[in-house]
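Record 1 of the preview.
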Amino acid sequence: MLLCIIANSLKKIKVLYNFTLQYNAIIDIMFGILIKSKNRYYMSNIIEIKNLKKYYGDVKAVDDISFNVVKGSLFAFLGLNGAGKSTTINILVGVQKKDSGECFVDGKPIEELSKILPEIGIVFQSSLLDKKLTVYDNLFYRAMLYDISKEEFEKTLKIFIDKLKLGDILKKPLEKLSGGQKRKVDIARALIHKPKILILDEPTTGLDPKTRKLVWDFITELIKENDLTVMLTTHYMEEASIADYVVIIDSGKIVAEGTPNSLKNNYANDYLKAYKYDEKIIDKLENKNITYSKSKECLEIKFKDTNSAKEFLVKNSDKIFDMEIVKGSMDDVFLAVTGKNLKENI
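->
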C-alpha cells in the first residue's frame, strides 16, 4: 500500500514540476514500482497484459505484447488503424478471445468477465446507444442495468448535464443528434455506473476542437478527483502528448513505450529556429555538417537534443539574434520508431 501511495505521489510531482531529464528518468522508473504477491504483480497496476497474442491466419493482429497500466493514470495506446489497438481492447472486455497470453484487470484474470465488466466503462468507435430512444432514456436504461436507483441516476445525470452540456439534447432521439453530441452521450453512458477504468477507443475522432476540449476537460477532472484510470487508443498526437504513459504499437507489436517526455528525448530531434541571424552562420553549419533548412520565415537547425541546441547557441550568440528552441514532437517519435508518417496514413 505504501508503494502505491509513493507511485501516485510521484505521478503528481511530475505534473507539477519540470524536472531535468535525469530526474524524470528516475521518476519514470519509480512510477512503475509494483507490489509483488502470489507470484505476480498487482495493486499499483490496474491493467496487466503479458505476452498477448491474437492471430487471424497469417495476420498477426496482436503479436506477443506486454504492458501495464498504472491505477489513476492516463495511458495512451498509439498506432495507425489496424495496428492492433482495438483488438487488444476487445480482448480485455470479452468481445474477442485471445489466442494466448495473460490479461488481468484490477487483479482479476479476464476469464472472470462477470467480475471485471462492472469496473469498466468503454466507449467503442461505434456507438452502442439506441438510435430511436431519447438521450435521457438511453442513459436511464443503461443505469438500470447496473441497478442504479432513480435518485442516484438523477444526481449523476446533473453532473453530465453540467460538464458535457447535455441539457439541450436530453429529450431528443439519438438519431437526431450530430456526431459530436452522440459522442458526448457515449461517454456519459460509459461513466454512468462510476467505473474504476474508462476505456476510450478513438473517442474524439471527427469531433470539432471545442467539443474535443470539453470532453478532455471532463475526463482530466475525473482522473484528478476520482482516481479514474483511462486507457486511450488514439492516432491523435495531441492526445498522446498529455498521457502519463504511451505505448506505440505497429503491425501488432510494441515498438516503443515510455512517458511522452522520455519518448521525445530518446527518438525525436530538437530544432533551433533562428528568425534573425548573420548569414555567416550558414557557412559554419555546412562546415560542421549540421542539418538545416532555410525558408522565408526562419533558419531551422536540427539537433539531437535540447542540450546540443543550447551549446550551439551559446557558442554562436553573436550570430543569432532572435530564435527559439523547439522540442521534438510525438509525430517525430512515431516516424522514428515506425518509419511511417501518422498524418499521411490516417
